[in-house]
Amino acid sequence: QKEVEQDPGPLSVPEGAIVSLNCTYSNSAFQYFMWYRQYSRKGPELLMYTYSSGNKEDGRFTAQVDKSSKYISLFIRDSQPSDSATYLCAFQGAQKLVFGQGTRLTINP
Amino acid sequence: NAGVTQTPKFQVLKTGQSMTLQCAQDMNHNSMYWYRQDPGMGLRLIYYSASEGTTDKGEVPNGYNVSRLNKREFSLRLESAAPSQTSVYFCASSEAPASGNTIYFGEGSWLTVV
């Protein structure tokens, strides 16, 4: 079983839609949960960081963590064409930082 | 503020040739990393340096060597390039080892081995 599973997509939605991106993990030692955004031909950049179960909101973005189910999600409200990118989940714990495969998202005007 | 700078951005190599990817960070970070990114595989750690003077293997170290030249610089060397090493390579740095909320990435180096 892989430590981290992320649907690679691609995912294409119309502008204004609510987007849901998801990852599952198997390592109980993971304590910190992150989402990175990667634009085409650029390096990943940290988008959201959290360490507890529940929701964390930042503008149009909400990160959700369910430790009991080993499941994290990123929600994007009122999606914009500028949100088109690859989104990577990441997990930190036991002196490891592990990334998901990334989901390629396209927001169509 | 440059952050993490890696060179070259694009390179084409013939099988068997050698090359070095250079990386420098100006954030006074202790830890530095080299990742490769392939379609459907995500970011895979090649080598990392938790602090100046130390280096360790990551998930996919075969065919690569690294040098932590000083606190700022961390280079990745391919001694005898193979087509399987065609990939996008990212250098990164962070304040502490495996610190997901302080890690910063360079813009990537596209390497093709023919």
Describe this entry's structure for a reader:
- The complex is a heterodimer of chains A (109) and B (114).
- With 109 residues, chain A is mainly beta.
- Chain A has strands at residues 4-6, 11-14, 19-25, 32-38, 45-50, 54-58, 61-66, 71-76, 85-93, 96-99, 103-108.
- In chain A, the strands form two sheets. In chain A, strands 2, 4, 5, 9, 10 and 11 form a six-stranded mixed beta sheet that branches.
- In chain A, strand 9 and strand 10 form a beta hairpin.
- The model of chain A has no long low-confidence stretch (mean pLDDT 94).
- Chain B is mainly β and 114 residues long.
- In chain B, 0% of the residues lie in helices and 51% in strands.
- Chain B has strands at residues 4-7, 10-13, 19-25, 31-38, 42-49, 56-57, 64-68, 74-78, 87-94, 104-105, 109-113.
- In chain B, the strands form two sheets. In chain B, strands 2, 4, 5, 6, 9, 10 and 11 form a seven-stranded mixed beta sheet that branches. In chain B, strands 1-3-8-7 form a four-stranded antiparallel beta sheet, with no helix packed on it.
- In chain B, strand 4 (31-38) and strand 5 form a beta hairpin.
- Chain B is globular and about 35 Å long.
- In chain B, 37% of the residues are buried.
- The model of chain B has no long low-confidence stretch (mean pLDDT 95).
- The chains are: A mainly beta (109), B mainly beta (114).
- The interface between A and B is medium-sized, with 22 and 19 residues.
